[in-house]
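sry for the spam today, last one i promise. struct tokens for design, 285 residues
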């Protein structure tokens, strides 16, 4: 009799374990569904948009704050809005301001609207990535003092933007002004998704740790759809160049720093913006 009871207990044990696993899986699925509903609720989406605007610009838009990675789905939209500001300013000033001066004005407006944070990130990232070993590089980037690599990077990127804008013909100028800021902010999402944070704190850590496939997918679909639908082959060339540059930056950052920092995210935005301006200028000749 004892043997029979023991056999029944042994047979029941796997069934109980299977039931517990099934219940746990059901709970996890329900929790994930609830989280998706919460993230996609209108109030949550507005908070994500507000966070993206505040993270990428100095515009003091009101609203709740969420994790910066969660707001990344709106990064290309914010970039598109920055591009629209450039287009409007370019058209308003065109009758009275010479082209070369307009180009300086447009680049300056981008710096002001973004608070100069991306250019500062470019300078720090260049100094860190090309100076010393990992710990030394991260220390340089935390200190923020601009060294020779940082100065060179900023000068070259700003010069490329100015020369590219100056070379843009009228038929591609509007597209370049619209889509360069958009693709630059999309590149930040691409770089952050799946990367490791190089430091245990800071903007880079906050971005990378909270960025999921949801934000990456939505940002990518929006960016590629808008650019390819409006620019065709030239837009495709720009996208391929952006993708290659971003992948190269990811490889370099992980090899030199062990991951991505906020400075690296800002740097990729500045570099991509300049490269997209250049692609639209080169494709016109």
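last one done:
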């Amino acid at each position: 009799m004892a043997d029979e009871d023991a056999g029944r207990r042994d047979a029941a044990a796997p069934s109980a374990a299977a039931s517990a696993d099934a219940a746990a899986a059901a709970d996890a699925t329900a929790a994930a569904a609830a989280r998706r509903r919460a993230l996609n609720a209108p109030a949550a989406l507005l908070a994500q948009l507000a966070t993206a605007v505040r993270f990428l610009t100095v515009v003091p838009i009101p609203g709740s704050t969420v994790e910066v990675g969660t707001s990344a789905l709106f990064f290309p939209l914010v970039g598109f809005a920055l591009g629209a500001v450039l287009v409007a300013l370019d058209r308003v000033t065109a009758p009275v301001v010479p082209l070369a001066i307009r180009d300086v004005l447009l680049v300056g407006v981008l710096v002001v609207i973004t608070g100069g944070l991306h250019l500062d990130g470019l300078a720090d990232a260049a100094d860190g990535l090309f100076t010393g070993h990992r710990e030394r590089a991260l220390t340089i980037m935390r200190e923020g003092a601009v060294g020779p690599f940082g100065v060179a990077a900023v000068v070259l990127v700003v010069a490329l933007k100015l020369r590219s804008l100056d070379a843009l013909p009228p038929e591609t100028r509007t597209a370049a002004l619209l889509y360069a800021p958009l693709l630059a902010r999309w590149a930040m999402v691409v770089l952050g998704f799946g990367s490791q944070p190089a430091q245990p704190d800071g903007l880079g850590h906050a971005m990378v740790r909270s960025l999921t496939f949801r934000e990456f997918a939505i940002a990518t679909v929006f960016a590629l759809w808008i650019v390819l639908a409006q620019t065709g082959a030239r837009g495709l060339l720009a996208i391929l160049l952006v993708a290659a540059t971003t992948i190269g930056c990811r490889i370099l950052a992980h090899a030199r720093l062990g991951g991505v920092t906020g400075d690296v995210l800002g740097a990729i935005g500045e570099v991509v913006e300049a490269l997209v301006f250049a692609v639209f200028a080169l494709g016109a000749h």
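Residues 77-282 form one domain. ok im logging off now
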